[in-house]
Amino acid sequence: EEVNPDDTVKVRLLGHGSSGKVYKVQHKRTNRLYALKIIQDKHEAAVCKQILTEMDILRRAQNPYVVQCFGASEKGGEISFVLEYMDGGSLADVIEAKKTLSERYLAEVAKKALKGLDYLHRNRIVHRDIKPSNILLGRNQEVKIADFGVSTILASTLAPCNTFVGTCAYMSPERFDPDSHGGNYNGYTADIWSLGLSLLECAIGRFPFLLPGEKADWPTLMFAICYNPPPSPPENASPEFKDFVQQCLQKDPSQRPRASTLLTHPFITKFEAPPSGVKAQTHSQLQSGGRFWGNFTKAFNAMFS
Ligand code: ADP
Ligand code: MG
Predict the structure, then answer these.
(1) Would you say 151 and 127 are in contact if contact means Cβ atoms under 8 Å apart?
(2) Which part of the chain is the Protein kinase domain (predicted)?
(3) Active site residues
(4) Measured between alpha carbons, how far is 197 from 108 in angstroms, rounded to an integer?
(5) Which of 18, 25, 226, 242 could be bridged to 36 by S-S, CB 3.0 to 4.6 A?
(6) In this structure, what is the dihedral angle of CA atoms 42, 46, 51, 56, given to the nearest 10 degrees?
(7) ipTM, interface predicted TM-score of the complex
């Protein structure tokens, strides 16, 4: 369905981003909840028109692992988007509140984010802005990728480190220097780097290129991303998680696996259904499975209530 930003009323402010504000809003006629993202930078009329046209194409991107866009409008150079409302906030909020996430939870997040990325990549869309604040959560274990359209469109009109895109911290080395690695630039696996870095951040509770409490200016950080070895997973991580992160964080973009390949990685599959060979689940196994998800949901909801 189509939802015009003008047909909604603000409920409350959800967050400030690099590009503007995000509000929780309610549709006047249906009472349904949405998120309204307002890009405050004033854009020239021609740029707005191009963005809205491309937005129309991107609105057709529909997948359970991608935050949907229901409508957009422009007024005096200010662009608004009506987005699917995700009541669990972002992975960035979770990191802030809880510091680190368990591998079981991370594998669940990784699997769903990879499904979203795989969908975008199959449709030849490169996200370009994967980071914890663009991985959104719902209270029924939904995990969805956000902001894919905005970043791809505006990237062509604005410099990569411009305030709109916000942070370059999760950008892969070859995006700073496309001629590195023999010009092996591959936009798709640039997203894989960013996802690996975001997951590693969730595992260790801090941005992986910086030591605890360390602050760095842009040139220093960019230098570290390009010329330091990639950050390593923690010593006590499982071999599967270590391998998963190491595969994502290879500096040569052509060496990084695609999203579809990573979906079969042991880190993702080891928490899935019981190993093959196990026949029908017994009643008690089913119950303990239910208990696991019950607790999972309870803990999850507790974080956001
Ligand atoms: P950034 O991703 O650069 O931090 P955004 O403007 O995209 O900034 O988002 C700001 C905050 O608003 C996010 O961190 C998130 O908590 C919240 N948010 C964004 N989109 C949604 C949405 N669709 N549903 C719920 N909350 C959202
Ligand atoms: Mg965002």
Answers:
(1) yes
(2) 8-268
(3) 129
(4) 16
(5) 25
(6) 130
(7) 0.97
